[in-house]
């Protein structure tokens, strides 16, 4: 019922520990509720409270989304039936809510015994609510259903409590009503966490086993690794083994977060905290890995470790070619904190030197680009995102293609592309519009369920490539922003895919090549040639713009010749003025890229490459 004492005694009895997380659709108020919990339990006083305390990165606070998990230890005291006050330690694990970070979410969930399932009382269940709920159920978590934002005038608690109860199979009266904003109902929620969520169970005498569920880079301390101890104990100065990398490290510091890091004498069964080992790169301290003692340690890991797999690739090029070394340094720095980011040098005839980067998804791509521009002051141009294709040739050889320019020449036997399972939740009046959209995106319907009389869940399988273009936008505009979407990769399928090249005066421009489904090739060709026709200024000779599949031209435009004589305006004038005009023309030319003999302004590349693919959180509403 009340704030507990903040004693960081080590090896808390597992019976006194509750490990839980909050799962919710984006914007349903997870961070705000976590803030209230920090305040109510007294770990942050009102004076030092700032909005969304747990979202540490500036970019997170600005966008209002949670990218990296943070966890915090909260003391909470409950008066039992006999009227005696009992102290508990609650570990709140703040999980990222976005589809790009599913693996991180699943590891955070694995560190908990229970989950608060938070639903906005004015919105109801959304696609990510369900995706996260299923993940929580797979991890056998106890679910506490909660409606948030009940202070909102638009809240419809009865309606959505029924929806929530229907989904998880409980009585609507069991759904708690809270407001993260005003704090209403939050105490009762913390009491419910203690009452309903099982305490952790483990063998305190067994060799130590702890799971890494997050890993962040700190410029002062190196990598800070968050762990949940399952068996045994870990203590400072002990040597540990990371079981997937088979590397040993000394534990320089072990502690808990409350909400700042506080060193402790160690962590015991069920406890959640951080370790510092002196590793410099998050890749050496991987989310999902198991740590154990280096001597007489455990032999079995806690679940299989999985490497984060990039799903979307795109080229990043500095607008100013001389910034290339800066881009390389910036990526090296970002990688310290982002185990999922991959990159390798790439050169493009049109865009110069850059990097081919692999991301978990579009939001990951956008965040990375944002950080490069903001934190490192780089001006960048990125090429259209692409998925991973597996191309098998007639001679049986195989190619993995993440970049259209690596598309193999010669006879292709078949191409496999990644397929995702999508869940779309929407008011039922938009069913027709959604089905039509999914059909045009090569979707196959997997099923449909009514969540209530007016809201429906649609399930589709669809190529990932169709989603990464402008699917969110199209879905949003067809449903007036009411539909929400979640997807997960489920494998690959054969697709009828071709590479479309765009040629200027017969020269292919690598930055504009794309891999598209055969039925979309013509549309892509026409739209690119038309766009470029508008964007490229006239030259002193005629410039044909063509779209082609192999040697076959499928669309064509042409820019008429024009002689641009900058001196025309000042015939007979004095020589210094002429020189000035010529100098100016030279300056302008610097911003031109040469494609064969054709001068293309940089702006044309930027404009032609800017897909309208929505990648931010708006896309998820
Ligand atoms: N009226 C009202 N607004 C709330 C409440 N809780 C959160 N909000 C608002 O809802 C918006 C989203 O809240 P966040 O706490 O950032 O949501 P979130 O779920 O953490 O979002 P992500 O971290 O992006 O997943 C913010 O503008 C909050 O001010 C509430 O109880 N009542």
TrEMBL record:
Keywords carried by this UniProt record: Cell membrane, Elongation factor, GTP-binding, Hydrolase, Membrane, Nucleotide-binding, Protein biosynthesis
InterPro entries membership: EF-4, EFG_III/V, EFG_V-like, EFTu-like_2, G_TR_CS, LepA_C_sf, LepA_CTD, LepA_IV
GO biological process, one term: positive regulation of translation
EC number: 3.6.5.n1
Record membrane topology: Peripheral membrane protein
GO CC, any one term: plasma membrane
Domain Tr-type G: 15-201
Enzyme type, top EC level: hydrolase
An example Gene Ontology molecular-function term: ribosome binding
Binding site for GTP: 27-32, 148-151
Cell location: Cell membrane
Domain of life assignment: Bacteria
Pfam families linked to this entry: EFG_C, GTP_EFTU, GTP_EFTU_D2, LepA_C
Catalyzed reactions: GTP + H2O = GDP + phosphate + H(+)
Principal location class: membrane
Role this protein plays: Required for accurate and efficient protein synthesis under certain stress conditions. May act as a fidelity factor of the translation reaction, by catalyzing a one-codon backward translocation of tRNAs on improperly translocated ribosomes. Back-translocation proceeds from a post-translocation (POST) complex to a pre-translocation (PRE) complex, thus giving elongation factor G a second chance to translocate the tRNAs correctly. Binds to ribosomes in a GTP-dependent manner.
Family according to the record: Belongs to the TRAFAC class translation factor GTPase superfamily. Classic translation factor GTPase family. LepA subfamily.
Protein name per the record: Elongation factor 4
Organism expressing this protein natively: Nakamurella antarctica
Gene name of this polypeptide: lepA
């Amino acid at each position: 019922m009340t704030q507990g004492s903040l004693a960081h005694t080590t090896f808390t009895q597992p019976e006194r520990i509750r490990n839980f997380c909050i799962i919710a659709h984006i914007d349903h108020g997870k961070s705000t509720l976590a803030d209230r919990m920090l305040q109510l339990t007294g770990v942050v006083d009102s004076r030092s409270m700032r909005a969304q305390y747990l979202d540490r990165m500036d970019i997170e606070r600005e966008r209002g989304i949670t990218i990296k998990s943070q966890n915090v230890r909260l003391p909470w005291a409950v008066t039992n039936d006999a009227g005696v006050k009992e102290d508990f330690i609650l570990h709140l694990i703040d999980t990222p809510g976005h589809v790009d970070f599913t693996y991180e979410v699943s590891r955070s969930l694995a560190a908990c015994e229970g989950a608060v399932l938070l639903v906005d009382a004015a919105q109801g269940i959304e696609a990510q609510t369900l995706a996260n709920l299923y993940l929580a159920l797979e991890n056998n978590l106890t679910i506490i259903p909660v409606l948030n934002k009940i202070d909102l005038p638009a809240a419809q608690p009865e309606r959505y409590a029924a929806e929530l109860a229907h989904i998880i199979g409980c009585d609507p009266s069991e759904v708690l009503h809270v407001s993260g904003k005003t704090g209403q109902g939050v105490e009762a929620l913390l009491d419910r966490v203690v009452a309903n969520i099982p305490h952790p169970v483990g063998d305190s005498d067994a060799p130590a086993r702890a799971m890494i569920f997050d890993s962040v880079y700190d410029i002062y301390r190196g990598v800070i690794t968050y762990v949940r101890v399952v068996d045994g104990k870990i203590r400072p100065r002990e040597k540990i083994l990371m079981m997937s990398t088979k590397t040993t490290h000394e534990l320089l510091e072990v502690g808990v977060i409350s909400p700042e890091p506080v060193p402790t004498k160690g962590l015991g069964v069920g406890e959640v905290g951080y370790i510092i080992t002196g590793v410099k790169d998050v890749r050496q301290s991987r989310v999902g890995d198991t740590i154990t003692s280096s001597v007489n340690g455990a032999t079995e890991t806690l679940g299989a470790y999985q490497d984060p797999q990039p799903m979307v690739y795109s080229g990043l090029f500095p607008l100013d070619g001389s910034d290339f070394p800066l881009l390389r340094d910036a990526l090296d720095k970002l990688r310290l904190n982002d185990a999922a980011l991959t990159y390798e040098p790439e050169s493009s005839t049109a865009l110069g030197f850059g990097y081919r980067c692999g991301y978990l998804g579009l939001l990951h791509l956008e965040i990375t680009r944002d950080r490069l521009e903001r934190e490192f002051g780089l001006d960048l141009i990125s090429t259209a995102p692409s998925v991973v294709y597996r191309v098998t040739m007639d001679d049986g050889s195989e190619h993995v293609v993440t970049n259209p320019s690596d598309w193999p020449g010669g006879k292709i036997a078949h191409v496999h592309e990644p397929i995702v399972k999508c869940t779309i939740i929407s008011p039922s009046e938009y069913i027709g519009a959604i089905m039509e959209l999914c059909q045009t995106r090569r979707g196959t319907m997997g099923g449909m369920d009514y969540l209530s009389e007016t809201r429906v869940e649609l399930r589709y399988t669809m190529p990932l490539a169709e989603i990464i273009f402008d699917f969110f936008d199209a879905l949003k505009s067809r449903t007036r922003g009411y539909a929400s979407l979640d997807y997960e990769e489920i494998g690959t399928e054969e697709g009828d895919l071709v590479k479309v090249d765009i040629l200027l005066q017969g020269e292919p421009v690598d930055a504009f090549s794309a891999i598209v489904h055969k039925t979309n090739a013509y549309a892509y060709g026409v739209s690119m040639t038309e766009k470029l026709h508008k964007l490229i200024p006239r030259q002193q000779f005629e410039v044909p713009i063509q779209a082609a599949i192999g040697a076959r031209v499928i669309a064509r435009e042409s820019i008429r010749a024009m002689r641009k004589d900058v001196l025309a305006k000042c015939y007979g004038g004095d020589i210094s003025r002429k020189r000035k005009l010529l100098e100016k023309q030279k300056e302008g030319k610097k911003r031109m890229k040469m494609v064969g003999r054709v001068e293309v302004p940089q702006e044309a590349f930027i404009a032609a490459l800017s897909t309208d693919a929505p990648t931010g959180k708006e896309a998820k509403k």
